[in-house]
Amino acid sequence: MWGIELQKRNKISLARQIFLSLKQSILMGQISQGEVLPSTRELAKGLGVSRNTVCDAYDMLLTEGFIVSRQGAPSHVAEGLHITQKEVVSPKEHKRERPPIRWDFKTGQPDLSLFPWPLWSQMIRRATNTLSAQQLEYSGPKGYEPLCEEIAHWLMRSRSMDVNPEDIFITSGATQAFHLLVDILHKEGHAFALESPSHPGIRTVIQDRGHLLQWMPVDQQGADISCIRDKDISTVYVTPSHQFPLGGIFPATRRAALIRLASEKDFYIIEDDYDSEFRYSGAPVSPIYSMDSSRVVYVGTFSKTLFPSLRIGFTVLPKPLQAKWKHYRNFMDVQNPVLEQVALTEFLRKRKMDKHIQHMRRVYAEKRNVLLNAIEHSFSNAVQFWGDASGLHVALQFPGMEFGKQFMLNCRNAGIRIQPVSQYCSVQDNHKDKLLTGYGHLSDTQIREGVQALFELIAKNSSGSLEFK
């Protein structure tokens, strides 16, 4: 009756099924505006349901304005409800069956199997049991204050950074920090200066907003800032402790020159401390922030030290930027979830973070050695390593080779996932002879087998000009 088909075993109640069916018919024009609906008794009899069920359905229609009802008169459809719906045709996708990924050299992926999950679970439970009702309310855009204090202590222990907890702001990872900073630091007609190659995170945010970009070429010592001396700059973004993706360390002379330029031209430096926790030879590299905190916005994250889905990062902000940050963050998402912040506070306070990083530094150093030995065994003098002995990936240069789309497709078909450096460049023709091999999440066996599979693929696709052994 009236096109209504009821499913009595459906999880949706019968009254709501009647409501949804009549609503759809009205919107599609199958029931005209002004048309009189059958009485509740008549429709109930036709559908084989109780009159109360139909009354409930009519009440829903009346509440949402689909029908008009007056005492003593039959209900009828309201005016102006017909909507012409265009059919959306999805493009046909021709999906090709591909072999599964067997050797995944993706970058920035920690070994999650070695994280102390039982200990973390205990801390989450304790946080759940100790949080007061007041702590479960909105706390504001700065973050959980005890966590800011523990991060300040941890930065002193791990980086020798003297940071006031008042200047630390908790974020949902580094990416959220980039979104906020691009809006805060943008100057009309001025460009954002980025490394090339560089991480796509902040680059994508800037490009999506249509802001100007100025690229700084990268060599084995990081960004060359000489190209921005005569430019109008909104801000400069660098990864000085372990340049992503080539791995160089920004030397003191370039750091000092960049700070002087920032002061002269009145812009801020965004320092993304990428992968700095995992350095395998010598002491940790000091951040630019330690040279001049007044011109540097320091961005850190716990995604690689703990686990990516934690989504807790932090930013150390100069005081002139803090009012704008609070305003933007307050109308973005207000704050991070408090439960994980409380657990992380305990994780830092009890030095479990220090212990975990020390352990993982040894583990990743061993994996790095396995990777380098496997590469040298397979490729011998045909490959050169880029970057400092740190981080969770190695950049490999194959002089004379070019890794384009076809090669990457061949890798994927062979069950290998690997990234060319060129995809992170402003000009795709740059660094075409380099590949990135992430290893943090791989076992020793996976590393050796993956390198051997990569060797066989490159040998098969090379022109014969390379001597592997």
UniProtKB/TrEMBL annotation:
Q: Name one Pfam family in it.
A: GntR
- Residues annotated as domain HTH gntR-type: 12-80
What SMART domains does its record include?
HTH_GNTR
Which GO molecular function, any one, fits this protein according to its record? DNA binding
UniProt keyword annotations, A-Z = DNA-binding, Pyridoxal phosphate, Transcription, Transcription regulation
Listed CDD domains? AAT_like, WHTH_GntR
Under the heading InterPro entries, the entry gives: Aminotransferase_I/II_large (IPR004839), HTH_trans_reg/aminotransferase (IPR051446), PyrdxlP-dep_Trfase (IPR015424), PyrdxlP-dep_Trfase_major (IPR015421), Tscrpt_reg_HTH_GntR (IPR000524), WH-like_DNA-bd_sf (IPR036388), WH_DNA-bd_sf (IPR036390)
Q: Which family does it belong to?
A: In the C-terminal section; belongs to the class-I pyridoxal-phosphate-dependent aminotransferase family.
Record-given protein name? GntR family transcriptional regulator
Q: Which organism is it from?
A: Clostridium formicaceticum
